[in-house]
Amino acid sequence: MQRKALSAFILAAGLTGSGPALAVEGKLVLYTSQPNTDAQQTVDAFKAKYPKVDISFVRDGTPRVMAKIKAEFEAGAPQADILLIADSVTMEGLKKDDRLLAHDKADVSAYPAGVHDPRKMWFATKLITTGIVYNTKATMTPSSWTDLTKPEAKNQLAMPSPLNSGAALIHTITLTSNLKDGWGFYEKLKENGTLAAGANGDILRQVATGEKLYGMIVDFMPIREKAKGAPVAFVFPSEGVSAVSEPVAILKTTKNPEAAKAFIDFLLSKDGQELALKQGYVAAHPDVALPAGYPARSAIKLMAFDAAKALAEESAARKRFGAIFE
User: Fold this and answer.
1) 238-252 burial, b for 16+ CB within 10 Å, e for fewer?
2) Close Cβ partners of 257 (under 8 Å, ≥ 6 residues apart)
3) Which residues form the signal peptide (predicted)?
4) Per-residue confidence at 198, pLDDT binned at 50, 70, 90?
5) How far apart are CA 93 and CA 59, in angstroms?
């Protein structure tokens, strides 16, 4: 009797090669802001483990994904089962509106507290930090956020604007909540001639070409380009960095909750997190190695961030930033 119970447990837990494939099937639709290549790799890896699930994806930037979902909600015809988007603040908004389905049995025991939503409504899959990129011909090598307010950086710093970037908004709220000067830091940046416009790719282009010597940018872009020979380097400032976690969640309106939960379980598993590493990202799982070009995980200090609090402050933060830079 005990042997039978153990076998049943193994099958249910997906500890055999055929268990998950037999237990999970049907259609599954993913809406994601991942780059197309990453999204396809993610879907293919999941499909390899769950061949009976007919999974497809729709890809766009997070604001457009959310606009599409909103329109579908209003029409009473939501199409997505799962979301894999840029930031936890957007997920908090969906949670507040009672749009998400909790995955109570998701195994997050390997992760430190605070990485995932405590109610298990959304789960972090990566840690994409924002730090400082500089052109290697620059005379100053920055090590602190405050270095960007120095004369050496006058009229030489570019950064994405939180008025049109969710990740930049999270970065701004994180810095103003953690740096001693708060919003005074951004006032000093403005006085120093900082340009607040463009996406991360444009910031990289400006710094790589020498149009600007410094930039605020997500980590993987300059680290990858440096490996290809671009004259750039990336710095994790001493005070710490902000991070977006590319969270995944299940919509409450899903037509296939079991397959959706299996997708969450896959992304949180060691295999799913190793996939993030292969794609060149810092996996959220603390035991997964970092990509080439990164320091040790212990050398990357994450600043404190409360997604629910950031959601409440979002409108005020945009207004305050606009008052400084526009």
Assistant:
1) eebbbbbbbbbbbbe
2) 101, 250
3) 1-23
4) confident
5) 20
pLDDT at 13: 41
CA distance 261 to 249: 9
Closest Cα partner for 243 from 122, 123, 93, 87? 87
Q: Which residues pair with 232 in a beta bridge?
A: 135
Percent share of the chain, pLDDT over 70: 93
Q: What is the mean pLDDT of residues 205-232?
A: 97
Instruction: Return residue ranges of the chain for CATH 3.40.190.10.
Output: 2-126+245-290, 128-243+300-325
Looking at domain 2-126+245-290, its CATH class is alpha beta
Query: Residue 159's beta-bridge partner residues?
Result: 196
Gyration radius (Cα) of the chain, Å: 21
Distance (Å) of CA 259 to CA 133, 256, 272, 275 = 40, 6, 15, 19
Q: What end-to-end distance do the CA atoms of the chain give, in Å?
A: 72
Q: How many CB atoms lie within 10 A of CB 202?
A: 15
The answer to whether 158 and 212 have CB atoms below 8 angstroms apart is yes
- Identify whether the C-beta of residue 176 lies closer than 8 Å to the C-beta of residue 321: no
Percent of the chain with pLDDT over 90: 86
Q: Are 17 and 24 in contact (CB under 8 A)?
A: no
Rounded CA-CA distance 252/272 in Å is 23
- Angle 303-309-315 from CA coordinates, rounded to 5°: 110
pTM of the complete model: 0.82
Residues 15-30 have pLDDT tens digits of 434 344 447 999 999 9
Q: Residue 7: which pLDDT band, with cuts at 50, 70 and 90?
A: very low
Strand 82-84 with 26-32, pairing: parallel
pLDDT tens profile 259-269 = 999 999 999 99
Highest CATH level, class, for 128-243+300-325: alpha beta
Q: Which two tokens stand for residue 279?
A: 């794609």
Distance (Å, whole) CA 225 – CA 228: 5
